[in-house]
Design brief:
The chain has ten helices and 14 strands. By secondary structure, it is an alpha/beta fold. The protein has one domain: Ribonuclease Z/Hydroxyacylglutathione hydrolase-like (Metallo-beta-lactamase, Chain A). The strands form two sheets. Strands 1, 2, 3, 4, 5, 6, 7 and 14 form an eight-stranded mixed beta sheet that branches. Strand 11 and strand 12 form a beta hairpin. The radius of gyration is 17 Å and the shape is globular. This is MBL fold metallo-hydrolase. Keywords: Hydrolase, Metal-binding, Zinc.
Amino acid sequence: MSRLRQAPVELLLLSAGYCLHPEFVTLRGGSLRPAAYPAGFACIRHPSYGWMLFDTGYSPRFRELTDAFPYSLYRRLTPVFLREEQTAVRQLAALGIPAEDVRCVILSHFHADHIGGARDFPSSRFLYPQAAYDAVRQLGPLRATRAGFVAGLLPDRFAEAAQPIESPQRRVALPEGVPFDFGHDLLGDGSLIAIPMPGHAAGQIGLLLTTSRSRVLLCADAAWSSRALRDNRPPHPAAGLVMHDRAAYRDSFRRLRAWQAADPELVVVPSHCREFFDIDSREARRL
């Protein structure tokens, strides 16, 4: 297992739609009123590899595929709001990045708000955590709905064409003091390190990277908001109904907080945090 040295990349944060859900479910002691949760995704430019995505947010296919029972239950529990111009593929085009220039899409896990726009990038190579896909790939409609997975959102022949991130060659030791066990060096140069952060979903990964301005951890749904991490307000037990493993979630959340405390300069970005993703703006935030 090699040691970690990070090469810098460029990072843009955007969101593709949002859903509504009572705040108290994601933030202990929060309001009973619905709060908006942006479907954040990250656009990354590597100096030699080019453009990549970390997750994709929603697309109109989510509405189409959740019209009928049982998937309609998913849409009713988390009503989704999305305009066509807010999709990842349209926002990237507005930034001068055509879909065919996105060489790689990294999926943190397989919930619909993270894979919703995957089919808009047919030329891209897909990387994913094996445990996350194994947990959902053979589920029937009812169990898939409970797991937040809509198979039709994935590209055709995904299982044959996509690649799991795990391999002995990619496994790396993390810097001393980082309270996670190991990472996976996705490009072999230390620029993008996938770190297992399971619990919310089986095999979920976060992504550690460095830009010219910051060291950033895209923590996916290991926390729903920066406020939850700062104030130590994990989700209400009711959130456990849609989690893969409640104990693993608590452990990942605890490790995230410990990492922030030990390294206050690290910028931790939860995928649904309004402090990083604006549900109305199409302006990319640069870190």
